[in-house]
Amino acid sequence: MLTPGPDSGPAGDDFSAFVGSAATRLLRTAELLTGDRAQAEDLVQTALEKAYLRWHRIRADDPYGYVRRVLVNAHHNWWRRKPWRERTTADVPEHAVAADTTEDHAQRDTVFRALATLTRRERSVIVLRYYDDLSEEAIAAVLGIANGTVKSTAARAFRKLRITPELNEARMARPVEAQS
């Protein structure tokens, strides 16, 4: 993560405090948007770099909202890249790593796979609404789309998610008291 240099003064301290408090949440948002931890880290780094350069202007307002918007825009720009640029792959290099079989990781993987079935816009709307807990109006402002487009996009995304077999299996596998 970015950290200001030793002569950065109080502004650098503010930025360091912001990064310390917001980095985990930003990383989780980016990971939900991308479905890939490495790409999520790159997106957060890009967003924090841009915020650092404008910190003197944004720190008094809503720095988290600004960085989140930069993060979403960077994610959208990634989709516009040419095919010969860096891309993630399903083939993992061979190395000795113990398999993690905890239930939390299985559920997270199920959610990532379900989100991967959505379009870029649908995924952004769902993540911003249900992970970042933004209102429809705030999502419209972040994505630069109409409020009605947010509503219709969310409805389309939920229709897709309702028919996703993995999510239905996961929901059925939970104990009855956890489903209510």
Automatic annotation (TrEMBL):
Pfam families: Sigma70_r2, Sigma70_r4_2
InterPro entries assigned to the protein according to its UniProt record, in alphabetical order: RNA_pol_sigma-70-like (IPR039425), RNA_pol_sigma-70_dom (IPR014284), RNA_pol_sigma-E_actinobac (IPR014325), RNA_pol_sigma70_r2 (IPR007627), RNA_pol_sigma70_r4_t2 (IPR013249), RNA_pol_sigma_r2 (IPR013325), RNA_pol_sigma_r3/r4-like (IPR013324), Tscrpt_reg_LuxR_C (IPR000792)
Keyword Zinc: no
SMART domains according to UniProt: HTH_LUXR
Domain of life, source organism: Bacteria
Keywords: DNA-binding, Sigma factor, Transcription, Transcription regulation
The keyword Signal is assigned to this record: no
Residue ranges of every copy of the HTH luxR-type domain listed in the record: 115-173
Family: Belongs to the sigma-70 factor family. ECF subfamily.
Protein name: SigE family RNA polymerase sigma factor
Source organism (scientific name): Fodinicola feengrottensis
